[in-house]
Amino acid sequence: MENTLLAIPQGIILGGAYGAIALGLSVIFGVTRVINFAQGSMLMASCFLYYVLYENYGIDPYIGIIAVAPIMFLFGYAVQKFLVKPLIIRERASVIEPTSVMMMTIGFDFALMYLFMMIFGASYRTIKTTASGIVVKTADGMFTTTLSRIIALIAGLVLAFALWFIFNKTELGTKIRAVAQNRTAAGLCGVDVFKSYSIAFGLGVAALAVSGACLLQFLYAQPNMGTMFGVKSFMIVVLGGLGSIPGALIGGVIFGVVETVGAQLITGTAATMLSFVLFIIVLVVKPTGLFGKK
Amino acid sequence: MTNILELRNVTKQFGGLVAVNDVTTDIEEGSIVGLIGPNGAGKTTLFNMIANYFHPTSGTIHYKGNDITNVKVDKMAKLGIARTFQVTRPFGDMSIIDNIMVGGYLGTNNTKDVRKKAEEIYEYVAMTCNPLQVASEVTTVDRKKLEVGRALATAPDLLLLDEVMAGCNPQEKLELVECARKIRESGVTIIIIEHDIKTIMSCSDKIIMLDRGSKLVEGLPQEVGNDPRAISAYLGEDYVHVEG
Amino acid sequence: MNKQDEKLPGAAPVVDGKKGFLEGKLFLLIFAVLFATVPLGMSSFTQHILVLVLFYAFCASAWNILCGYIGVLSLGHSALMGIGAYTTTLLLVHFGVSPWIGMFIGAFLTGIVGVLIGFPCFRMSGPYFTLTTIAFAELLRVYLENTKEIFGMSTKGASGITVPYTGDNVAMLSFLGKIPFYYLMLALLVIILLITWGIDRSKLGYYFVAIRSDADAAESLGIKLLKYKLIGMFISAFFIAIAGAFYAQFFRYINPTRIFGLDMSIRIALIAVVGGQGKIFGPTIGAVILIPITELLSLYFGATLPGLHLFIYGVVMVLVVLFMPKGINDYVMRLFSWLEGLLFGRIRKAKETARTNS
């Protein structure tokens, strides 16, 4: 029983990291209605950027964010502008292939994943930073974790707040939300719809880059890592409600807790399966998720 | 004459908004009925309830004596009620003939018969485009005719035309009126939503006018045209002068 | 192929005259002969690739019946394939049931599973549908990777099942060489192409495409969306399960990761999309083009540049979706009709002048 109780904070911390990854997906979907299947690979790409910075220049990923997040923002911006936008325009003209954007991002995911496979090979790369070495304990020593994991949770909260602030308290954010609610009407009011899309896409990918910096501290970089995180973040985002910022975090925490507590009570496998079942039930009962609107 | 459709106290609320309020009316078999009213009067909402696209909050709709108030939308065609859409919705990557064939397959599997029937309907609604042309590429009036033709292919007894003449020039409107008359001759009852008062007055047997969700006037075109309530709500003073 | 290409007697000025048998079927005949003879005398490796071409053409065609025609994007077909493969193999290993029979038991079972999965999935649209299919596939994969036995039959979890070799035995669908597998797969491909052709020209195909184009309009014409989606799902699941049974017999080894994994689903979808969704020959064309390229790349660069072939998959996918929305099929068909005009144009013209003169 004590183990189970201890698993809850572990789950919350893990869930915060999950939620941070899911944020990017949620932001992109919320604005553009595009599910970015290349999400996992983009996370992987940013992890490798941090890895290269660390290995070659000794730059800690936390500091590397200053360089990598803007790079990934531009990357996301460009992907939207050159790959997604033409498809959205085409689909507006005819509703023949409503699946084409999804297909494109799947192809892009493959291309990116195996591009890194060719460059870095399939091996797992880990780094040893200061934060990952510091062990944090409660006074009675029952609960231990590392500083890097706690930072990941805090980063998730900060990221969520930052995104919420951008979308709700800035003029840019108001424009983007207008586009998200009604593309045509916002366009008529003089908002550059596709620029808003590109910025949302860029922000989503930049948010991924931030969570990548936190993950690399206690996980690894490997070309296939995106698949696992990709599938998970889809489930988290749908659970919390596609497009909802708090939904992504809370969905992440629910997942984290189900996984860690489930691993204590039942088996790890059963817990993973439970999370899939949970996901399917939520989809069937309330497809908009726990916090989704409309 | 018997009534093909009977609406009793039909009301539809969206949240706090009453889109259609307590509408009661009868549609006679074999007539053309025009549904008019200012924007936001609830015409399309009423229409969508008859087509069971969504269901009334209260009230009943009877079709040929049977309650169809809560029938599922995919059962409507089989019952004999077909509709067109305000914004045309052709099957974009199919040819004109194939579009009509989709309607024609209702209740049959025989592709040969269906194709023959579709060709007849293509002639019947007098489309000008090549029947093998892809539907997304044809002109507005042909799209409208295609909508009508596709609905006709399901062999309906009641045809609901939602602003079928919008966006057409006077010549094309005449063609469509001609087409509607021809369809009525074959025994099909038609309900049309239309903004062009002159056109709709000229071809309808009965006009129902909605205003702010309620039925304002109902009657023969001349009666409605001369009704002071209708004139002040929608038709305007000019209308009287035009009609003389 | 394209419905708009069909001739319609009487209704419109028909562009060209009635084609002769040879004219209309020439390319089919050429390909039939080509496919029937090509593996003979080839090395075992080439034969292996050829079998894979047919295998993926078959899988993508099965996917196409649901996803290409009805226009939903399933990324859970690997799970359906896996159910077929596991059913056949377990029946063979534990009860000695011939894979010929097991194949059909598996196919029916998978069809039913597909329909059951379809009920919740088809309530959702677009991305939600796709995500649910992924979730079902992942659920089954994780389950099988960690389960030692189902209904008392050992499945060995993630380490997978080796299919026992029963000698060169037609009755047990077990062959020494690749050639019998090649012809078996060819026959299966022909069958699924004929079925797709039949669907394409019948009520089912018309309804499928109508649902893909505009579900609301389709519903207003009396099409029961769920019913037809479930029919599509059953047919698609049935055939993808047969592919699974073939996979097990051909590779003689199955494991959950390889057969249930997301990669397999994506690969199948990719081949169909690149070739041309919702077209009879689209998936086959996709497989004929993609599989040899990627297999050869993985052979020659597998050690030096691991993942190159999959990288190519991704790039081709992006380019095709962006620049060839109808898939390569469209271009191939245009090429054929151009060639046909070149070959038969003169004969046709001569015939026509003769007709007008008489």
Explain the overall architecture.
The complex is a heterotrimer of chains A (about 290), B (about 240) and C (about 350). Chain A is about 80% helix and about 0% strand. Chain A is an all-alpha fold. A two-stranded antiparallel ribbon of chain A has the order 1-2. Chain B has about 240 residues and is α/β, with parallel strands linked by helices. Chain B has two domains: about 1-80 and about 155-170 and about 190-245, 3-Layer(aba) Sandwich (Rossmann fold); about 85-155, no CATH class. Chain B has helices at about 45-50, 75-80, 95-105, 110-125, 140-150, 170-185, 195-205, 220-225, 230-235, 235-244, and strands at about 5-15, 15-30, 30-35, 60-65, 65, 80-85, 160, 190-195, 205-210, 215-220. In chain B, helix 4 crosses helix 5 (about 140-150). Chain C has helices at about 20-35, 45-70, 75-95, 100-120, 125-145, 180-200, 205-215, 215-220, 225-250, 255-260, 260-275, 280-300, 310-325, 330-355, and strands at about 150, 155, 160, 255. Chain C is globular, with a radius of gyration of 22 Å. The relative contact order of chain C is 0.16. The model of chain C is unreliable at about 1-20 (pLDDT under 50). Chains A and C meet through helix 3, helix 4, helix 10 and helix 12 of A and helix 5, helix 11 and helix 13 of C.
